[in-house]
Design brief:
Aconitase, domain 3, iron, 32% helix, five-stranded parallel β-sheet, 3-IsopropMal_deHydase_lsu, globular, 2 domains
Length: 473
C-alpha cells in the first residue's frame, strides 16, 4: 500500500467510525463559534432537551457584527438591535452551557481565527471546526481546520463529532524565494489565480517547498486562510521548527512533560515519501510579483504590472459573460493598467492580515509619511492582544501619525455585517480575502492585496507597486 499524506494521518487519527466508502464519523478536538452561525444550533439542542456534550472543547467569539469604533474596550456596544440580539443570545447560550466566550467588552476580543492560535488553542494534529469558511487558517500549524454549516454545529455541540466526507489530496509545492515586496498574501492570490476559484474543489491542499519553509507561522496562516478561495476543503503545512516555536510559546497549558510528549507526536505529522496525491502543482516563488485582484472573484487577479483583461478575447461564451459582468461591476476599462487606479478607501485587517506581523509591515512603510488627501484609511487589529502589542511597540502611534484610523478589533470591513462598509461606487484597497460583489458594502469595489500594497495605496491615493517606494529595502 502507498504511504499516507499528512491529511490522511489527521483524518485517520480522528476517525470514530467508518460510515461508508466516502464518509466517516470524525472526532473534533476544538469547536469555535461566532454570533451568527450558532443561534439555530443552540435552539435545536434546546428543542431536543440536550446539553452540550463537552463544553470545555468549545470556544465562542463575537466578531462579525461588532462595530470597531475606537472607544475603550469596556465601553464597546452594539447599537444595531438585531446584531445586539445575536450577541446577547450567544452570551446567554454560552453561560447556560459553560462555554468560554470572548464577548463584546472583553479586552481580548477579536477575530476567531486570530484569537485561537495566539492563545495556544491550536496544536499540530488537532481537528478544529468552526461555522466559518476561513477555518482553513489552522492548517498553518499542522491542524486540520475547515468550515461547517449550522446543522453541523448542532451535531458537534451534541456529540463532539461530525459526519464527514473525506477529501481528495492535492499537493502544491512552491520552491525558491519570494522577492522584495512580495508576501504570503501575494503568493496565495497568485496560487488562486493560477489554479482558479474551483481549482482545489474537493481537495485538502498540502503546501510544501523551500518557499513555504521560509514563511513565518503568521504568514502561513495567511496562505492557508485564503486557500479556501480556490475551493479547497482544507489547507495544511507540516509542522516544523517554525511551528514548534510559535506553538510552544503560546501553549502555556502544557507542562514540560506534556510539551515533550506533544513534540514527539508532532514529529510524526509528515507526508510519507511514497504517498500518492490526486493532483499536484509546482510554482516558482521568484516568478511571483505583488498581486492585485481586478474583478469580483479572488482568482480574477494579476501582477501589479498587468492590465485589465478584455472579455472579447475570451473564446468561451460563458467565461466571456462572467468577465464582462466583473469588468462592468468593478468599473475598469479593458486593457487599462491596474497600477494607477485611484482608490478612496483602504482597509487593513481581517482574519487574513490582521496579525502583528502585518501591522509591523504597514508601519514600516508609512512611517514619516501621510495618507493621501481624499483617502480614508483604516487599520483594524485582529484581536485585543494584537492591538495592545501594536500600541506597546509604537506601531499604533506611527499609523495614527500617518493619518490612519486605529480601530478596535473585529471582522470590520471584511464583510458588510457591521457599520464599517463601503458606499456605492467606493473603491477600496483591502487586505481581506474576498472581493465578491457587495462583500464590503452594496456596490462597493474591492481590490485584494497585501498589507504592504494596501499601505502603499493609502500613501499614493491609487494602486501602486510597493517595490517602487524609496524606503523599501
Amino acid at each position: 500500500m502507498p504511504g499516507m499524506t499528512l491529511y490522511d494521518k489527521l483524518v485517520a487519527s480522528h476517525e470514530v467510525a467508518r460510515i461508508d466508502d466516502e464518509h466517516i464519523l470524525l472526532y473534533v478536538d476544538l469547536h469555535i463559534m461566532n454570533e451568527y452561525t450558532s443561534p439555530q444550533a443552540f435552539s435545536g439542542l434546546a428543542a431536543r432537551g440536550r446539553d452540550v456534550l463537552r463544553p470545555g472543547q468549545q470556544m465562542a467569539v463575537v466578531d462579525h457584527i461588532i462595530p470597531t469604533h475606537p472607544v475603550p474596550a469596556a465601553l464597546r456596544v452594539i447599537p444595531d438591535d438585531a446584531s445586539s440580539r445575536q450577541a446577547r443570545n450567544l452570551k446567554r447560550n454560552c453561560d447556560e452551557q459553560r462555554i468560554a466566550l470572548f464577548d463584546t467588552t472583553d479586552p481580548l476580543q477579536g477575530i476567531e481565527h486570530v484569537i485561537a492560535p495566539e492563545h495556544g488553542m491550536i496544536l499540530p494534529g488537532m481537528v478544529v471546526l468552526c461555522g466559518d469558511s476561513h477555518t482553513t487558517t489552522y492548517g498553518a500549524l499542522g491542524a486540520l481546520g475547515f468550515g461547517i454549516g449550522t446543522s453541523e454545529v448542532e451535531h458537534i455541540l451534541a456529540t463532539q463529532t461530525l459526519v464527514y466526507r473525506v477529501a481528495r489530496n492535492m499537493r502544491i509545492r512552491v520552491d525558491g524565494r519570494l522577492g522584495v515586496g512580495v508576501s504570503a498574501k501575494d503568493l496565495v492570490i497568485y496560487v488562486v489565480h493560477r489554479i482558479g476559484a474551483q481549482g482545489a474543489r474537493g481537495h485538502a491542499v498540502e503546501f510544501c517547498g523551500s518557499a513555504i519553509d521560509g514563511l513565518s507561522a503568521e504568514a502561513r496562516m495567511t496562505l492557508c486562510n485564503m486557500t479556501v478561495e480556490a475551493g479547497a476543503r482544507a489547507a495544511l503545512i507540516a509542522p516544523d521548527a517554525t511551528t514548534d516555536a510559535y506553538v510552544a510559546a503560546r501553549a502555556r497549558h502544557l507542562d514540560a512533560a506534556e510539551l515533550a510528549q506533544a513534540r514527539a507526536y508532532w514529529a510524526t505529522l509528515r507526508t510519507d515519501a511514497d504517498a500518492v496525491f490526486d493532483a499536484e502543482h509546482v510554482f516558482d516563488a521568484a516568478r511571483i510579483a505583488p498581486f492585485v485582484t481586478w474583478g469580483t472573484s479572488p482568482d480574477q487577479a494579476m501582477p501589479i504590472t498587468g492590465t485589465v483583461p478584455d472579455p472579447q478575447a475570451e473564446p468561451d461564451a460563458l467565461a466571456r459573460l462572467a468577465l464582462e459582468k466583473a469588468v462592468d461591476y468593478i468599473g475598469l476599462r479593458p486593457g487599462a493598467p491596474i497600477a494607477g487606479v485611484p482608490i478612496e478607501r483602504v482597509f487593513i485587517g481581517s482574519c487574513t492580515n490582521g496579525r502583528i506581523e502585518d501591522l509591523r509591515v504597514v508601519a514600516d512603510i508609512v512611517r514619516g509619511r501621510r495618507v493621501a488627501d481624499g483617502v480614508r484609511a483604516m487599520v483594524v487589529p485582529g484581536s485585543g492582544a494584537v492591538r495592545a502589542q501594536a500600541e506597546a511597540e509604537g506601531i499604533a502611534a506611527t499609523l495614527v501619525d500617518a493619518g490612519f484610523e486605529w480601530r478596535q478589533p473585529g471582522c470590520s470591513m471584511c464583510l458588510a455585517m457591521n457599520d464599517d462598509v463601503l458606499r456605492p461606487g467606493e473603491r477600496c484597497a483591502s487586505t481581506t480575502n474576498r472581493n465578491f460583489e457587495g462583500r464590503q458594502g452594496r456596490a462597493g469595489r474591492t481590490h485584494l492585496m497585501s498589507p504592504a500594497m494596501a499601505a502603499a495605496a493609502a500613501l499614493a491615493g491609487r494602486i501602486v507597486d510597493v517595490r517602487d517606494l524609496e524606503n523599501l529595502q
